[in-house]
Amino acid sequence: MEVQQFYYDNKIVKKFLYAAILFGVVGMLVGLLLAIMFIFPNITDNIPWLSFGRLRPLHTNAVIFAFVGNTIFAGVYYSLQRLLKTRMYSDLLSNINFWGWQLIIVAAAITLPLGYTSSKEYAELEWPIDITIAVVWVVFGINMIMTIIKRRERHLYVAIWFYLATFVTVAVLHIFNNIELPVNMWKSYSVYAGVQDALVQWWYGHNAVAFFLTTPFLGLMYYFLPKIANRPVYSYRLSIIHFWSLIFLYIWAGPHHLLYTALPEWAQNLGVVFSVMLIAPSWGGMINGLLTLRGAWDKVRTEPVLKFFVVAITGYGMATFEGPMLSLKNVNAIAHYTDWIVAHVHVGALAWNGFMAFAIMYWLLPRIAKTELYSKKLANFHFWIGTLGIILYTIPLYVAGFSQHMMWKQFNPDGTLKYGNFLETVTAIMPMYAMRAVGGSLYLIGILVLVYNIYKTMTAAPKVEDELAEAPALSQISPKRVRGERFHAWLERKPIQLTILATIAILIGGIIQIVPTLVVDSNIQTISSVKPYTPLELEGRDLYIREGCVNCHSQMVRPFRSEVERYGEYSKSGEYVYDYPFLWGSKRTGPDLHRLGAKYSDNWHFNHMYDPQSTSPGSIMPGYKWLFDNEAMDLTEVETKMRVMQKLGVPYTDEEIANAKKSIQIQAQKIEENLKSDPDFVKSYEASKKAAEANGEKFVPMSEREITALIAYLQRLGTDIKVKDKNE
Prior knowledge:
This is cytochrome-c oxidase. By secondary structure, the chain is mainly alpha-helical. Helices cover about 65% and strands about 5% of the residues.
């Protein structure tokens, strides 16, 4: 049999790993800055692009898509070539994949701090970047599938199944969740509203975790762990069960993020059932990984790479046990909207994704550079300080989460809330936030040690060159099952059929959950008193989205006695029919805002947004002074926004759209008049007016500034339905 020679492309692997390290440092630095902001909320005072609400999505996108994403591409490009015994199909497509992905990351790093965001968690990027992501992802998929087709190895190893499922599912999730109508180059509205948008978003959001942070890393685990431990996978049969059950069940689990909300009960219950079932395949994968190390545990003592793998797989097991438990309604009632969820997420992110990435970097870069790692001692130090960092990060947040739950729900004997002031909870957990910052600092020190170790390794190594390999061409065999061949063995040599079956497996759950919610009107009970936002309120809502307020405040009062007592009447699905996008939030660093309207005066909101501590002593909310700047509110596109909303089904009339600016002027002037009821405001306002005139500057009335629009929106929240007073 003729043996063919070819070269593995190691240079593309090196590029992706270098990018992963760079953006890992950047993403974690931003994360540490955010942790410090909980302790010193005004550390970036009056710098809008460094505010918490704008930086938080930058942190998540940098860590998920830049650090983890580049690691995935590096691992896939390295392992795929060797599993298929061929070079990648196209060097051009490989480089388009690399440079396109880095362009997306840079675009995110510019647009998110500037406030260009859709506000959807893990999908905040605006529509031009969304399209670029889809194109680059398809380029990656074409390159992978064509490489599989021209392979020299008949059998498709388990890692490749996970890669294929990842490609297909992420494409479906990304495209479906990001269908939106543009207003301009950097502003769009989701085509889904309220409850429907929430379901689609968390179908995407949960499965972004499943199919971007989990399935590709499981594929990398199945390739790298046996390779490094020099042991076969513990059970190939278990890997088959693990793969198919995981991709089928995972896609159903999204609604467990929306328990006790206005989402239809049947959708919530489906999410719970399938989330609990997920523990079986998830732990099957963890067990398969750990038992692969049988007979190799002596190496774990001396090899830092294997140490990272052991903690990573253990972290995966912990997170995938905790996830199904959190989907149980009684547990979810305790944890949701608290810091417990933040701790849970970071067990997976820091241990599973972070330590897996570090293990791959420490093993792969010296290997393709044909050298030894500069210092195993430094790698071991990284492992221990990183592990300590994870512990000091997560345990205080678990304590904080339980503290929040207990304090939010405690009542006095007379039936009043024991901690009626939300800030009492915030004050109580400040030491835990300080410990979280310490843990994050230790974890960051670990990756800086990795940077030094890799730098010393690669600068002393020969130049990374493509690796010569040889293998016989793939011989012809019957496309049909040969006698005695089991179905799955046949499937493992048929990439197209495998991909089609995987696609069907992931589509079933999504179709059954989402289609009825989108097309069956009875799922969303309309309320006649709920009207569209006025033009000024719509502008204010867009400012709320721009500033990332949804990162800290929810707009969903759940039907619990404690929440109704604290916030007011529980939320109804019909109240959100004009919310494009939904803003239910997933964390309460501050109180829920859905019943905020008419609760405080316009002056209170004015002072609170300028200096939160002046109205709420002990608050960790930063000020938003730039909303008060002497610049006119941008109303150039208010009519365009309303026409886009009209296309989406919001019942704006042509007359209302034509009179939008006049409507804004009338409502804004009324707010300004309300503000002038405060003598201190009048005194300050007149002084600034005189100063502007003295300096020859144009003075912009308060009615034309951004803060006025935001106040209008906040005063509208939750006022569409008539709620009986508790004393009636």
